[in-house]
Amino acid sequence: MQFDLDLQSIQEMRHALQKAKEAQQKYLSYSQEQVDKIVKRVAEAAAAKSLELAQMAVEETRMGVVEHKKMKNDVGSLAVYESIKNEKTVGIINEDRTKKIVEVAYPFGVIAGIIPTTNPTSSAIFKALIALKTRNGIVFSPHPRAVKCSVAALKICLEAAVEAGAPDGIIGWISKPTMAATTELMHHRDIDLILATGGKDLVRAAYSSGKPAYGVGPGNVPVYIEKTANIQKSVKMIVESKTFDYGTICATEQAIVVDQNVKEMAVREFKKNGAYFLNEQEKVLLEKVISPFPGKLNPDIVGQSAIKIAELAGISVPVDTTILIAEETRIGKDVPFSIEKLSPIFPIYTAESYENAKELCVKILNLGGMGHSLSLHTNDDKVAREFALEMPVSRLMVNTLSSIGAVGATTELMPSLTLGCGSFGGNITSDNLTARHLINIKRMAYGTKEVNVPKPSYQNSGPQWGASNHVDEIVNQVLSNVNVSGSLDPKVISEMVNQVLKKYQMN
Questions:
Q1: CA–CA separation, 243 and 322 (whole Å)
Q2: Which GO terms describe its molecular function (predicted)?
Q3: Which of 146, 173, 218, 219 is 20 to 30 A from 290 via CA?
Q4: pLDDT of residue 505
Q5: Residue range 268-285: average pLDDT?
Q6: Is 149 marked active-site?
Q7: For 468-481, what is the mean pLDDT?
Q8: Which residues neighbour 420 within 8 Å (Cβ) at sequence distance 6 or greater?
Q9: What local confidence, expressed as pLDDT, does residue 1 receive?
Q10: Nearest 5°: CA angle at 254, between 263 and 338?
Q11: One of 149, 157, 250, 421 is an active-site residue; which one?
Q12: What is the helix (H) or strand (E) element at residue 36, kind and residue range?
């Protein structure tokens, strides 16, 4: 009997979520030492299978480069572990004895982890590690085109965690993911936080779920080659970065902006590094392949080599071609070369001046990379600092490979496979996400200051109980009417009470 795939997927999700919730309740009692032992074991186990997982990812998704995906797996496992291993995430994590404030960490609970097809194994490992480090449970929804390799990575992580003492079910997943199951996962009452990495529609769905969510926006990253740059070195890094995993990292350079004073030299260096410059006819052919519909990227070119993309467009290129470049002057959704391409394709813009370069970079970012990243090659520190102050991005990579520099491989940025875009990009954080983003902190504060609290003034605050001379007079009248036997005339009492009430009402 054939069952509905959505129903199967939803039922699997609910079962995984129930197990994760039960496991997380047990995990709450674990000490920092126990947690750190588990995290270390998982990182080592994932790193040991790094190459195997990379091969599985390329085979299943038909995207990227095995050697480069292995590097991403290493960043997501060992580099992430090294960056978080000494962080306190359990119990008292900080104490200021002078200010008498004690900070205590506590987890969100159970997290929904959304995995993209571009980084299916490295993202899975990374999110599992930071969830374990913070005593959260996590249930994953892999991309349907990368489910086998993602689940393989998660099984490695779960098995290593359980062997190290973690409760079974602390990591869960949907092995037959559907949009219906993913949507219900994000809205489920037992989900306390969402980690969403994927397309803009999925990220938007995460933010509209009513749950706390970390989502990341697109990265239409401009790279500016400023006139003082070391052109030979800069161009080599740009080509290496653009061809890294065939452009699948969201922080990869997407558009070249070059100062007119060094353009000729830069073009020469790009050609030395295997770049193929398209003529006008070839450019038109490739535009149709990049974006068959205005503003929509053709998924068939994502993570593909320059040679394969050229073949799709019917363009003959040398066998050693690394990237495809076309001259461009326009920027817009109807300009295929100007959108985020996630592949080794570049438009090249000529900046007539420094101010013009800044304008071009902002326009490119406005098209789809606002808040994400910008790459700059310069030997003028003043220029770098000015860009840092003025550009609407969350990270600025200077004289390095933007793709892997943004995730912490060639810089001292926090190693991460989820890069926030801040308020520029509609995200809650501009950080490289890591373990500290998955804990809450409660604070115990002792009194340290003596204050004199003034007594309230009754002059303008309604009925003035006990402060009215009229009330005192009425009470005295009542007492004066007490006869010798100590009894009171009921009529007198009634009249006195009425007078008192009238006085209160008047006040």
A1: 7
A2: oxidoreductase activity, acting on the aldehyde or oxo group of donors, NAD or NADP as acceptor
A3: 146
A4: 58
A5: 98
A6: no
A7: 60
A8: 214, 216, 394, 427, 428, 429, 430, 431, 432, 433
A9: 39
A10: 90
A11: 250
A12: helix 32-48
Give the dihedral of Cα atoms 144, 147, 149, 154; nearest 10 deg.
140
What are the structural domains, with CATH classification, of the chain? Answer: 5-216+435-445 (3.40.605.10), 221-413 (3.40.309.10), 469-506 (no CATH)
Cβ atoms of residues 227 and 262 within 8 Å: yes
pLDDT of residue 81: 98
Tell me the C-alpha distance between 130 and 52, whole Å. Answer: 22
Two structure tokens written together for 469:
């001379």
Structure tokens at 174: 């949907």
List of residues 6+ apart from 486 with CB closer than 8 A: none
Mean pLDDT of 13-24: 98
The answer to whether 143 and 134 have CB atoms below 8 angstroms apart is: no
Can you list the positions of beta strands (E) in 174-270?
A: 193-196, 213-215, 221-225, 253-259
Give percent above pLDDT 90 in the chain: 83
d(CA 56, CA 96): 49
Centre a 10 Å sphere on the Cβ of residue 30 and count the other Cβ atoms it contains. Answer: 18
At position 265, the amino acid (one-letter code) is M
Structure token pair of residue 446 = 């002792």
Question: Using H for helix, E for strand and C for coil, what is the string for 256-325?
Answer: EEEECCCHHHHHHHHHHCCEEECCHHHHHHHHHHHCCECCECCHHHCCCCHHHHHHHHCCCCCCCCCEEE
User: Which residue, 335, 328, 287, is CA-closest to 309?
Assistant: 287
Query: Which pLDDT does position 250 carry in this prediction?
Result: 94
d(CA 496, CA 339): 86
The number of residues making up the chain comes to: 507
Residue 460 has pLDDT above 60, yes or no: no
Do 256 and 323 contact (CB within 8 A), yes or no?
no
